[in-house]
Amino acid sequence: MVISTTNQDFDQDLHSTFASRYVRTSLPRFKMPDQSIPKDAAYQIISDELMLDGNPRLNLASFVTTWMEPECDKLIMSSINKNYVDMDEYPVTTELQNRCVNMIAHLFHAPVGDDDTAVGVGTVGSSEAIMLAGLAFKRKWQAKRKSLGKTYDKPNIVTGSNVQVCWEKFARYFEVDLKEVKLKEGYYVMDPVKAVEMVDENTICVAAILGSTMTGEFEDVKLLNDLLMEKNKETGWDTPIHVDAASGGFVAPFLYPDLKWDFRLPLVKSINVSGHKYGLVYAGVGWVVWRTKEDLPDELVFHINYLGSDQPTFTLNFSKGSSQIIAQYYQFIRLGFEGYKDIMMNCSENTRSLKEGLQKTGRFDIISKDIGVPLLAFSLKDSSRYTVFDISESLRRFGWIVPAYTMPPDAQHISVLRVVIREDFSRSLADRLIADIVKVVNELEAAQPTKTAISVHNGKVSEDSVREMQKGITKYWRSVVHGKKTSSVC
Ligand SMILES: *Cc1c(COP(=O)(O)O)cnc(C)c1O
């Protein structure tokens, strides 16, 4: 990097500080530069480069919050310099986390009295929450096996093959075998019957998902609970359930209060939820709550004594920001049950309107269910001429980020597009999206082979070879997406 020497004499107050005045060569990418640069130049250069990122508000691939009220933004900025782990110095922040845990535990019907403290912790996201919950199950299972004088070196966990990648991480990092119930065409969640069949004496828990990442569908936790109760009775085991409610935990209590998926079911011992998804906070907060104290082995909890009271901590990381916890508390008291319900209903209505718009085109099959997380997963009725990957690519032109991906085993032959409907995705944006999808589909349908592009290679090419080329591109796309189970969806 070269700092142009002339500008050092510039009066920075008088002259524009545009990046090109300071930096005349490409920016350093591998080695830290030798010299410093002015702060305004650093700011300008970096924000210029960031302009090439997608627009988060148009990123329909993600469940993660992209808009909060300006008042909350203010709270976030004013606590950006607080390390959450300094509980001695910031006891109020710790208190806010505990209040959030209590509120979530009550929302999920944990058996705690109105004034009792619930057992749970704030995390960086559901992934950390799931690592902690998984560890608790593993330890409990090991302790029991030890006490019975049985082997405890082959723990496994039963899930659907639609699990989010963090479960595979948990399995690999903490040496637990992942036993996956395969999906099939037309059925894209874990089948509770098959899951219970897979349970054996080494199963530390069955993980059910409330809001499958692929389709937003809720798995039938009630049926799983009932079948597993029967099996436990027959075998004498006590295989528990964890619910991964990363996306659905802040949807179901408001939209489907009668749906039994939480601690109302006796075998559900822990639940995780992403505060940064429908908890409506920016990226960086998740939660895990346990049914009772007994469900979290004490050996995993570290106790910090501060201000005369005992603060148990159970996290993978030590230092982290406080802002997200504070923002979560803001949302809880600002919105209340009423506010969350209103937002979820609005998301749900926008989903319905988008669904109707897509159905009207006559080109798509809707894969997602009406009951579930507000998202639309849809596939093409006819993929012979162009695919969902082509649509996804073409939509980028308008700024939309709509991921296309193949379903997990054994439904890999199905490819879908997925649109997540968040609070900030308004009805008018939904209307625009439909209009743009229609435009893209019409173009792809009318697309005569792109002769100009081909003629670069050799002046005259048959339509067949153009089609072959397009197929080749699609195949390549698929091979990239394949293997990366969840591709760009999160
Ligand atoms: C998003 C998601 C996760 C991972 O959550 P993070 O909060 O992003 O770590 C886990 N499980 C499911 C079902 C999810 O949707």
UniProtKB/TrEMBL annotation:
Keyword Lyase assigned: yes
Cofactor(s) this protein cannot do without: pyridoxal 5'-phosphate
Reactions this protein catalyses: L-glutamate + H(+) = 4-aminobutanoate + CO2
InterPro entries in the record: Glutamate_decarboxylase (IPR010107), PyrdxlP-dep_de-COase (IPR002129), PyrdxlP-dep_Trfase (IPR015424), PyrdxlP-dep_Trfase_major (IPR015421)
Any Gene Ontology CC annotation: cytosol
Domain of life: Eukaryota
Enzyme class name: lyase
Keyword Lyase among record annotations: yes
GO molecular function terms attached to this record: calmodulin binding; glutamate decarboxylase activity; pyridoxal phosphate binding
SUPFAM superfamilies on file: PLP-dependent transferases
Function: Catalyzes the production of GABA. The calmodulin-binding is calcium-dependent and it is proposed that this may, directly or indirectly, form a calcium regulated control of GABA biosynthesis.
UniProt-listed NCBIfam families: Glu-decarb-GAD (TIGR01788)
Family per similarity comment: Belongs to the group II decarboxylase family.
Protein name per Swiss-Prot or TrEMBL: Glutamate decarboxylase
Gene source species: Artemisia annua
Organism ancestry: Eukaryota, Viridiplantae, Streptophyta, Embryophyta, Tracheophyta
